[in-house]
């Protein structure tokens, strides 16, 4: 179906529940099948995001991760089992997803994303291209964000730690006045909370992964309602908060000023009071 202008009978049966949605239909399912999504990080978030997007019919998925499967990953990273321990996450995920979802072309990049290889790894040459940041590394998040802004590629960034989750939809090509990850977290800010330091429950990660996959599919279908917005989820109270993230003129990545640190200009302040959330 990937290069077809219409769905086959088999496609209609497979994706019938999606095609029934007015927001999807046959045209939307074809758009999904022609899309190329790059998932950076195949851990707790990326594991489930990749599976859901492949199941939805995304035609081309690139998986990027240099880490190997560890025993402590198994409660959250459901594609993996004990027999996978010690093997590269991207390669294992590609193998399992390729067998389950034959309609999706999968590529595995079994190395960490660095400044030297990022342009080569994140080369997207298909329509509907999108980046998904599923990493737990602050430096890599900043690197992916810079690439997304410079290449004008839509980026959905997600994170989950403890009972807190966060989603950020960055697409300055659609909304030039919206902010980026660096507006939210300047590079010289210390962000230390990760699953490794504060812990997390598997369902908490799965909830954010599902929302990230949903947000990605909505964008592939042309729905831009979440662009430029930050969503935060509290897993204890089951409450969501939503805030607009405007572009900071002082941001060294997407703003008007170059060469200043985030701390110097207090780049990208978040709303400080509850009533400022929308």
Automatic annotation (TrEMBL):
Domain THIF-type NAD/FAD binding fold: 15-251
GO molecular function, one term: thiosulfate-cyanide sulfurtransferase activity
InterPro entries: ThiF/MoeB/HesA (IPR045886), ThiF_NAD_FAD-bd (IPR000594), Ubiquitin-activating_enz (IPR035985)
Pfam family of the protein (one): ThiF
GO cellular component terms, A-Z: cytosol
Transmembrane segments: none
Family: Belongs to the HesA/MoeB/ThiF family.
PANTHER family: SULFUR CARRIER PROTEIN THIS ADENYLYLTRANSFERASE, UBIQUITIN-ACTIVATING ENZYME E1
Name of the protein described by the UniProt record: UBA/THIF-type NAD/FAD binding protein
Organism field: Shewanella pealeana (strain ATCC 700345 / ANG-SQ1)
């Amino acid at each position: 179906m990937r290069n077809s202008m219409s769905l086959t009978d088999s496609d209609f049966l497979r994706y019938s529940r999606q095609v029934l949605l007015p927001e999807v239909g046959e045209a939307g399912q074809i758009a999904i099948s022609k899309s190329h999504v790059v998932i950076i990080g195949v851990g707790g978030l990326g594991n489930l995001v990749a599976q859901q997007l492949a199941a939805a019919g995304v035609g081309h998925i690139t998986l990027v991760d240099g880490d190997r499967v560890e025993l402590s990953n198994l409660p959250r990273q459901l594609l993996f089992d004990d027999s996978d321990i010690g093997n590269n996450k991207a390669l294992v995920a590609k193998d399992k997803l390729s067998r389950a979802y034959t309609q999706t072309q999968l590529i595995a990049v079994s190395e960490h994303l660095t400044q030297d290889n990022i342009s080569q790894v994140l080369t997207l040459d298909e329509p509907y291209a999108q980046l998904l940041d599923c990493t737990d590394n602050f430096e890599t998040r900043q690197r992916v964000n810079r690439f997304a802004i410079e290449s004008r590629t839509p980026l959905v960034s997600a994170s989950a730690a403890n009972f807190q989750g966060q989603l950020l939809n960055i697409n300055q090509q659609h909304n030039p006045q919206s902010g980026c990850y660096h507006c939210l977290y300047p590079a010289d800010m210390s962000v230390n909370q990760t699953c490794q330091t504060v812990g997390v429950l598997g369902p908490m990660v799965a909830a954010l992964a599902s929302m990230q996959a949903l947000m990605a599919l909505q964008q592939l279908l042309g729905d831009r309602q979440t662009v430029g917005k930050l969503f935060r989820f509290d897993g204890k109270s089951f409450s969501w908060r939503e805030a607009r993230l405007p572009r900071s003129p002082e941001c060294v990545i997407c703003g008007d000023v170059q060469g200043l640190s985030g701390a110097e200009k207090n780049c990208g302040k978040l709303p400080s009071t509850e009533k400022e959330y929308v």
